[in-house]
Amino acid sequence: MNTKLTLTISMSLCLAASAFANLVDVTFNGPGSLAQGGVYVGPYNLTLDNQLTKLVCDDFTDEVSAGEKWTANVYNFNNLSQTKYAAAGARAYDQAGWLYEQGLLNPNQWGDIHYALWAVFNPTATEASGGWTTGAANWLATAEHQTFTANEFNGLSIYTPTQLSGSGAPQEFIGGTPTIVAVPEPNVGMLLGLGLLGGIVWRRYQNRSVAS
Predict the structure, then answer these.
(1) Residues of the chain whose pLDDT is less than 50?
(2) Which residue, 11, 26, 33, 173, is the most exposed by fewest CB within 10 angstroms?
(3) Are 97 and 153 in contact (CB under 8 A)?
(4) What are the residue boundaries of the structural domains of the chain, listed by start?
(5) CA-CA distance, 117 to 198, in Å (whole number)?
(6) What number of other Cβ atoms are within 10 A of residue 70's Cβ?
(7) Alpha-carbon distance 65 to 63, whole Å?
(8) Distant-in-sequence, close-in-space partners of 157: CB < 8 Å, separation ≥ 6
(9) Alpha-carbon distance 1 to 20, whole Å?
């Protein structure tokens, strides 16, 4: 095969692979206890690939129940083409990301903030619900007037279900996940090498002691 053609194919495969999101297994453990207008507003308890975390959903029209499992694609805020509300555009997701962070900073207003987040993508259904308040409207208006910068929400991820429509389609979730820094196990070869080096140093020290 021509070398240039091989290189071109390899680069194409790498680019294609980079376009795919990471897949995670999701389990919805429960909605928490906070509710507004008869609707649980989170933050919700989920398990992502055996890791417990808390997220919010941006989807007011679908539902999930405790114990439900599904698979989701994980996207960042620079890769929105396959998210559930990709047609709404990057600014809509920026507003949702900003509202999520405001909810963390203002937990006593979480209900209004989450309704505002829902209204970014589903304004008609959300604003017609019993949980919609003046406070939620104010938060939505504030989000709409924000100026966002590039990479502002790098710490957040979007968890888009692989099933986007149809009966039983899960919700899309937004949030950050804890960063677990694994402590590397000692390398056996390195330990042996250090042991040998220590032995050599000790032998030289002993020889010098005898010579003196």
Answers:
(1) 2-19, 177-194, 197, 201-202, 205, 208-210
(2) 33
(3) yes
(4) 22-181
(5) 61
(6) 18
(7) 7
(8) 74, 75, 76, 174, 175, 176, 177
(9) 28
Question: What is the structure's pLDDT at 6?
Answer: 39
Q: What was the pLDDT predicted at 199? A: 53
Per-residue pLDDT tens digits for 154-197: 899 999 999 988 778 899 999 984 333 333 434 444 444 445 54
Calpha distance 174→84 (Å, rounded): 11
CA distances from 73 to 13, 30, 166 (A): 20, 21, 17
pLDDT in the model for residue 203 = 52
Q: Is 188 left (phi over 0), alpha (psi -120 to 50) or beta?
A: alpha
DSSP assignment letter at 36:
E
**Which residue reads 């502002």 in tokens?**
152
What's the chain's Rg over C-alpha atoms? 26
Residue for token digits 């209204």?
A: 119
Dihedral sign of CA atoms 177, 179, 185, 189 in order: positive
Residue 127 identity (one-letter amino acid): E
